[in-house]
């Protein structure tokens, strides 16, 4: 048991013994009350001397003077009561801090110590510090992953709630990465270590937590300074009460009620509660100082790629140049890109496979400095890369025409050259994060008045995202040093926070008043430079952290103001002789308890919304959305190729019509019967899903028209009018379905957290 609680128990025992001995042995009662007061006075004196040696003056000297004065005046019971007040306040502070740090302490206490390494045919228990990259580790059910690694052989079911706050287990397939600190919620599996324990995710989180626990925030230091002003004021007030009344008892009463516990305890407890509450949301704030600055932020700056967008590009279109076909360009590029793990390469290969193209195995594949790839595919020399890269190897890109205009308008573009001739361009899009619009709204609601993008991407791409999200300003084509200049300019107008995820964001994160790193998959350099680290890959947690910080700061100031106001009022009452020392001690203890309990209110609320019941079928809805997005992509690609009757691909059109009937329409019917009623009950209102139902009706109507057009179509006799109508319906369905999926996920996210897809 901690020392403070032992002292409190001793004081309570002495006071109980003194109360029992009051009638039978008054002398023994006085001795017991003195025994209760003296140890506490000795400890306060020791702490005061230590503070004085450090060049400061401790405000606990008020309590020391009060105990000494009570003993000198023979007010032994009052002295014991003051000692109880001090001991109880210390124990209460200890309890409050432990309660406030619970989320942080839980993170640190879960650090694994032992790992099970496969050595030959056996398994050996080793210290976690001995793990090396490449080791095969057995993770048993219920165990915490000791290091970062990749799942081997069989899928793993992992509980990531301790790090991310996501309540539901996730499944990681063989080859998928798994972070240290998560718990095996399924069967035993084998993990191949990719880092040592010190270099793993969880060790970095523990270091962040320890840094957060050790910092004294500006508000706490300010409270200490206020308390020092309060000390001479108290002594002067007590002296004046004695001098004017001639009663030392009044002076003692003033000292008793003047203990500035509300000032000393309220700020640190409230701010630590705020840090702990943010940790519950999957956000590590590096101490109360960062939390206090976060609470005062008025401007938020964002990187684009990986922060406001998913950072996982997809192929939005293929534009061939004369002499080449769309499928030909995509097939050759994807065949070559199979040899690369770059995110753009992965997107190109996925698009080709989704289109049903047969990929060939390339030869002589080699990386080109600057982010390109070159090799031989089916006897043809293929190069894929950016415009600058192809120009650097002597190829001339078209300056005008559809390909040039589309490449300029796209988020980014990869050009394809075949046998020394530019064959076409792959148009790439980077989806805005599904939770980003809500995060922007929540930040504005939390008091952030200016939202700015700072990115190294092209201006056209950045402006499109900025307009879609309603940002106040967009700064594009920036080098890391340019980002710092923008951050410094914004700081001149108020406290700023910068959110980013890459190595190039680290300088800007360090330059901002509060740097926020997307630590779930962002660069380690960004996390080290940041004041706040998001353990879950969701930008909406920034708004939750800002809200928690503002609530903590407000309650801290409220507790200080109310507590000190009550103490000042009690001092005035005591100075006029209406509050005897004994009752003053009881009143002050009540004020201390009230202040601490008020500070602990920061921990209330802030939980994630409860999930809809299983009957709502939300997991099935989200699975269908993934398949529907694939269908929408195929619809768009098919429509892009429909320019004349000769382009009619009856089999593709019929397959799309069949999937609209067998996937889309049953999906909508299931939503109307299962999901929408539960969602409507949660949202409230007369008909909160009326617009969604109307969109269902329109999609069903368009699907029926498309089916009627396609069913029985003869490709040999198709007219230009039929080709135009098929293309028009595909484009309209593409737009309406995509909008409907986004709107539906936004509504679902209002009542429960959805996985980022």
Automatic annotation (TrEMBL):
Keywords, comma-separated and alphabetical: ATP-binding, Cell membrane, Membrane, Metal-binding, Nucleotide-binding, Translocase, Transmembrane, Transmembrane helix
Where, subcellularly, is it found?
Cell membrane; Membrane
Where does the chain cross the membrane?
Answer: 31-49, 56-73, 79-96, 226-245, 251-273, 560-579
Q: What is this protein called?
A: P-type Zn(2+) transporter
Chief place of localization: membrane
Q: Where is the Hemerythrin-like domain?
A: 619-749
The main enzyme category here is translocase
